[in-house]
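[job 0412] stage=fold_complex status=start
inputs:
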Amino acid sequence: MIRVDGLTVRQPATGRTLLSGVSFEAGPGESVAIVGESGSGKSLTVRALLGLLPSGLEAGGEVHVAGRRVDDDPRALRRMRGGTVSLLMQDPFTLLNPLRRAGRQIADGLPRGADAAAEVPRLLAEVGLPADVAGRYPFQLSGGMRQRVGLAAALAAAPRVLVADEPTTALDATTQREVLALIRRVQRERDMTFLLITHDLRLAFSMCERVIVMYAGRVMEMAGAAELRREQRHPYTRALLAAEPPADRRLAVIPSVPGSVPAHDAVAGGCGFADRCAYATPECRAGVPELRAEPGSGRLSACVRAAGLPAAPPPPPGVTAPARPAAEPVLTVRDLRKTYPGGARPALGGVGLTVAPGEIVAVVGESGSGKTTLARCVTGLERPDSGSITLGGLDCSDYAAMDRRAVRLARRTAQMIFQDPYSTLNPARTVGATLKEALAADGRPQDVGALLELVGLDPALARLRPANLSGGQRQRVAIARAVAGEPALLVCDEPVSALDVSVQAQILTLLAGLRERLSMGMLFITHDLAVVRQLADRLYVLRAGECVESGAVDAVLDAPAHPYTRELLASVPDGTGGWPH
Amino acid sequence: MNGWARFALRRLAGTAAVVLLLSIGVFGLLYLAPGSVQQTLLGTRPATPATIAAIQARYHLNDPVAVQYLRWLGGVLRGDLGTSIRTGAAVSGMLGERLPLTLALTGYGTLLAALAGIPLGVLGALRRGRATDRLVVTAGVVGLSAPPFAVGLLLLVVFALGLGWFPVYGTGEGLADQVWHLTLPAAALAVGAVGLLVRFTRAALVRELEQDYVVFARARGLRAPLVLRYALRNSLVPVLTAAGLIVTGTLAGTVLVEVTFALPGLGSLLVDSVTFKDVPVVQALALLLTLLVAAVNLLVDVGYSLVDPRVRLGGAA
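[job 0412] stage=fold_complex status=done
writing structure:
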């Protein structure tokens, strides 16, 4: 159905090449996953395939769709979009026209002469939505419902190939599982060729028959999902799989890969992964390794040592979390309540928790659970309706009623790091200026270099502005800014959910180290139970503003008592063909 | 519909409050004018004890200022805007005579600006980065930076005196003739507005064309005109904002253009009244302009709610 041969994407204005030498096929009814971190070129590959590259980019190489060469014939490709090949995009909050009712958007994609009054309800039913959704605007629907409407719209012209670009990354864990199960059911029922773009190897194993692993704009490895799950013939695939922490056991060390994904051109002369690879030899940097078939098995690897790689180490065993001596809590929250104006139900309906010095307490929940409201109340960014917050012995229930000195003291006690590393730093200031300010605010000597080293960054970065840093580096700077005054409590609101897995592991390791060195308490807000398992001592599970379960991490995750906790655990992809169901 | 009615009522109340607040400032003009209030109200008449007493009695100048304001406001609400110091005629009548011309000029100018500016902006966005786009953007900047009276003079010299296609001054008789007479002044007003509209339209459409929903619409094979309609509909809010600015800007621009083309509208009346320190007329004009600007803003708000269901249904995100 789809054949891509030697695909290249370039940016003529800057002379940069973003990906090259990408070749693969997908047969009728076959499901293929393209896996990679940001910058791997996985999204550009499918955009190029569909003729939908952002302006300023240019594709080369051959693309055949349904037996027809389309790379040199944009008109033919345009006619094929919708009816032959269709795309489902990542963000349900932006992929629908905000000003058009859902039903009309679906109807817009129907083939000419189709009866919208009959077809739209049928498509909505196929994606598990009631017919009255047709009359609603996107903003009146939840994220999961919007993504289902998106799927219905993508299916309207009955495509034979469905491409899904990270279709559930922006959704909650439980919703993600439902939507993925839906996509797989629809794909099988319609017998479509399916191309899934994802950053999550385990998700790829569960959803697809074949997996292509990309890195820095090249294909690294290609194999059947089951084979690849059993054995990886490229060190990058191994590293990617290892960096995704398991939810079922705690590891002594989270395996992380040093460095970050390089630009395609920066590694044009050799293997893209060589600089981060433990098995690298001089041969790896001598030239770009070819994607070679392994004799007899049909799987492909671009590692020069593919045949001679030592066997992958067995999955590391779990350890029990070290016990922490009981101590006077640095943060005590009692019966916190908050209802937003116009909110149908309270965002927080009486939540209480404690954090001791050196303890990492996770607050787990999905969007709407109140976990972010809790973090914002603790740091004084939001004013609770009632309840008490005690920070280091200081009553911080109402920041507005505190005098200036008390507020300063509270701010020095509790600091916060945010989810999005791209908007958390002032883009106009250098890293050094930002950190100097944080140190001065606490009356500390302005030793920016030492602070950068504390978070594992080169002191030379102080001269740069955030735009010149990678996402992981920015998050490290944000952490440095937060710990500059050695606060007793660090509130982390989803600090790794916007980062690539290999970088996520680095940041988690950094946070675990900082907790020991500064004996900081941490309130760790997250939706990811695997992260909780690796990092936290205790957890609270929040649902719709209520705490449904709490306790020591190992106890709760090994034997969840509340059905909602069990549902959350079941939403973590396990890499088997049985998931998601 | 209930949500919409509530929305409209809220906006209406807000507008009324703003107008009321500004009316205090407008009334205060009397006291802000240089010289004493009696002198101002006397104008060029001799200041004898008799005339001063007459003025004091007529304007109740011995009452507290708040009472004077309320009395003035009561008069305004009944349609009594006072009498002109310069002509002795009722101010409301003077305004009534001149308002239609200014409204016609503003409407005509805005229409010309919209007819030229929006299509050019769309063209620029669709041909982004190419020669057409650069030409459109440059023309927009030139238009924006040209003052309307200077454009007016240029148009007069070229099209009225040089080519003789349009009359030099006057308002004309009958609809067709009036339109013909108003074309050059309206064009002079529209030139700057076109520049603004081109920029707003182009920027809004360029941004919308890069949105995910446009890529998604193309990816599932929607035809190009339909995709463009998606994007255009979504660029309407900033374009409406620009349109509101243009109507009010054009209204202010009539002051100079009416003088340039010797048109008997509110603008030329304002210039004359300021020159003669005819405070009651200036007050009435200021109040009328306030009311017009507030009405335009109200219309723009209502326009938003028609364009974007999120505004009227109160949804976020």
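[job 0412] summary: Chain A has a mean pLDDT of 89.
[job 0412] exit 0
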